[in-house]
Amino acid sequence: MRYPMAKAPVKPAAKATAKKVAKKPTTRPAARPAAKAKANVAAKVAHKKAPARPNAVLTIGSKNYGAWALRGWLLAKLSGLEFTEHVLPPDDPDMKAEMLLLSPSMLVPSLLHDGIKVWDTLAIAEYLHEIKPKAGLFPADLKARVHCRAICGEMHSGFTSLRSALPMNIRATFPNFRLWSRAQADIDRIVDIWRECFKTYGGPYLFGRTPCAADAMYAPVVTRFLTYDIKLDKACAAYCKTMMALPAMAEWVAAAKLEPDEIDELDAEF
Fold first, then answer.
1. Is residue 27 part of a domain?
2. Residue 114: inside a domain, yes or no?
3. Is residue 61 within 8 Å of residue 87, measured between CB atoms?
4. Residue 65, class by beta-carbon neighbours within 10 Å (0-12 exposed, 13-18 middle, 19+ buried)?
5. Cα(first)–Cα(last) distance of the chain, in Å?
6. Is 102 exposed, middle or buried (0-12, 13-18, 19+ CB in 10 A)?
7. Is residue 202, in this structure, part of any structural domain at all?
8. Sign of the Cα pseudo-torsion (92, 98, 101, 105, in order)
9. What span, in angstroms and rounded, lies between the C-alpha atoms of 248 and 84?
10. Coil, strand, or helix at residue 51?
11. CA distance 73 to 110
12. Is 61 within 8 Å of 93 (Cβ atoms)?
C-alpha cells in the first residue's frame, strides 16, 4: 500500500515591511545652563572688541613746545611700537625745565616698556632699534648707519643757538623773523647736512625712501623753519613739506593746536 508523501512545511511569507533594527541609545552631553552660555558668548565678544592694552608708556611734555617730546614720540611711531601716552601737566617741573631749556638731564621724554625704563632721545632711538630691528630706524648699510648716527648725535648735542633763538612753537607764526648771526650759522649747517643726505641717498627723506631716526631728530627743526619763516632752497623746502605730510606729524600738529595756552614764559620771549 502506497502512502501519500508528506509535503515540506511552507515558510511564512516575508512581511513587506521589515522591522527596523533598534539603535542603541546615544548619550548626549547635558546642555549647559543658559546663563553660563550667555556669559561665555559675552566674554568672547568683549575679548574681540577690547584690544590688548599696550605694555609701553611714553612720558612726554607739551606737544606745542616740546621738541624733545616730538623726537621721542616720532621715533616710537616710526618703530611701530604700540604705546600709551602720559602727558605731563604744564606746571610739572620736569616739563617746564625741558620747555625753558633749564634741564641738565633730559628726563622727558622717557619710555617704559616691559619693565625697562629708558630716557634721553638717542637712548630711546637705540632701544627701539634693538627691539624693532625691522622698522629701519637706522639704515641697514654700515656706512649709511654710521652717517645717520653721526648727524643724530650732532642734533642731540649741538645747535644751541638755534634752540634758544627759535624755540619750537607750532601754533605760532613769525613772518620775516629777524635772525641773529649765530642762529643763522646753525641753520646753514643743518641745511648742509640735509643737502649732503639728499645727494647721497636720493631723498625724499634724509636716508632714502623711508623716514628713519635722523628724520625724527630733525623733525622739530622742520617745524621751527615753518614757524619762523626761514627761507630755504627748493630741495630743503620740499623735505619740510614731505615731513609735515607724514601721518604721524599731522597727528602731532593737530594735538599741538588743541593744547591750552598755559606756558606764558615762552610766548613772553617774543
1. no
2. yes
3. yes
4. buried
5. 151
6. exposed
7. yes
8. positive
9. 15
10. coil
11. 10
12. no
Cell numbers for 248: 604721524
> What is the spatial distance between Cα 180 and Cα 134, in angstroms, rounded to a whole number?
42
**Contact by Cβ (8 Å): 239, 191:** no
Q: Give SS3 for 172.
A: coil
Distance of CA 180 to the CA centre of its chain: 36
Instruction: Return the residue matching grid coordinates 597727528.
Output: 251
Residue with grid cell 588743541, as numbered in its chain: 258
Give residue for cell 617746564.
96
Half-sphere exposure at residue 71, Cβ-oriented, CA atoms within 13 angstroms: 27
Domain of 231, in residue numbers: 56-259
Residue 89 maps to a domain = yes
Q: How big is the CA angle at 93 (ends 90 and 96), to the nearest 5 degrees?
A: 55
Cis peptide upstream of residue 9 (ω within 30 degrees of 0): no
Which ranges of the chain have pLDDT less than 70?
1-53, 90-106, 262-270
Q: How many CA atoms lie within 13 A of 181 on its CB side?
A: 0
Query: Any idea what the CATH number is for the domain that residue 68 is in?
Result: 1.20.1050.130
C-alpha cell at 219: 623733525
pLDDT, residue 33, reads: 54
**Tally of domains in the chain:** 1
